[in-house]
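Quick review question:
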């Protein structure tokens, strides 16, 4: 990708984020006006506002508390990793109804795809969906994945902990090709059209570290990153993502480098890729650290 292309992409992403922020501010302003005039609202509008309010309150009550484990999705920024490990205070993040709905949509589509995968072997296809917990047990019987613990099954995902790399992650699944006995990581991504149209014949760069992380922890070398266009439900698997030993060694070294900062309680340098900062929940503490 050329510098010009990256600059254009950053500008587009910045514009999209700016529009979202303006919409959120407008929504909050509108909500404040409506809340102050609830008695005057017609019944249908009051019903609408109360549904959204109730959904946001439910989500806030059930929001998972942050842990000090590294998250594969945050490996793009070592300072974010450092703040996670040291349990730095996060910025306030109020629940927004549209964000809740988008997350629920992704979860529902993920579960629908998993139901298809579970039926493939039974219906005569050359693919088998492998239970992640059983896969890890088998690996551990051969001396592999000894540091992986299965914490819980969360719908279509399996929550795993790597006690050596201090990783917490949710694996979508593992696929076996029956005819060759090859195993592949299965990772499902529900994305908007703007992102989906960037795929061509390769996975999105923003997902590389996450896939490398999963394959390193699970002793896998290949992955099917399966993208679905959230707007029109088109599926694509752009490539067989191959994870080399060099990639795995880089990942381990990267995490060990961050652990060094954690031990010294010194924040790493800021990331040079500022597009990673847009949705970061450590903006305030990051500014204070400098």
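Suggested answer, residue by residue:
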């Amino acid at each position: 990708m050329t510098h010009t292309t990256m600059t254009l992409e950053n500008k587009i992403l910045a514009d999209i984020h700016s529009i979202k922020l303006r919409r959120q501010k407008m929504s909050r302003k509108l909500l404040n006006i409506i809340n102050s005039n609830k008695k005057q609202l017609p019944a249908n509008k009051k019903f609408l506002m109360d549904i959204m309010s109730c959904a946001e309150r439910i989500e806030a009550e059930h929001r998972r508390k942050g842990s000090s484990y590294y998250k594969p999705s945050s490996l793009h920024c070592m300072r974010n990793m450092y703040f996670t490990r040291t349990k730095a205070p996060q910025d306030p993040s109020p629940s927004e109804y549209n964000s809740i709905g988008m997350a629920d949509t992704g979860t529902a589509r993920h579960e629908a795809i998993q139901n298809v995968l579970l039926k493939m072997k039974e219906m005569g296809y050359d693919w088998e969906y492998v239970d992640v917990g059983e896969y890890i047990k088998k690996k551990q019987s051969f001396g592999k994945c000894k540091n992986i613990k299965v914490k819980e099954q969360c719908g279509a995902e399996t929550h795993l902990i790597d006690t050596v790399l201090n990783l917490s992650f949710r694996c979508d699944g593992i696929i076996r090709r029956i005819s060759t006995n090859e195993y592949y990581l299965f990772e499902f991504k529900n994305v908007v059209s703007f992102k989906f149209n960037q795929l061509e014949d390769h996975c999105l760069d923003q997902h590389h570290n996450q896939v490398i992380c999963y394959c390193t922890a699970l002793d896998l070398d290949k992955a099917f990153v399966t993208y679905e266009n959230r707007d029109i439900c088109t599926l694509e698997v752009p490539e067989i993502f191959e994870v080399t030993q060099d990639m795995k060694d880089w990942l381990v070294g990267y995490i060990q480098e961050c652990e060094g900062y954690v031990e010294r309680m010194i924040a790493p340098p800021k990331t040079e890729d500022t597009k990673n900062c847009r949705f970061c929940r450590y903006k305030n503490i990051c500014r204070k650290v400098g």
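Why it works: The beta strands are 127-130, 148-154, 157-162, 167-171, 173-177, 182-191, 222-229, 235-236, 241-242. The longest strand covers residues 182-191.
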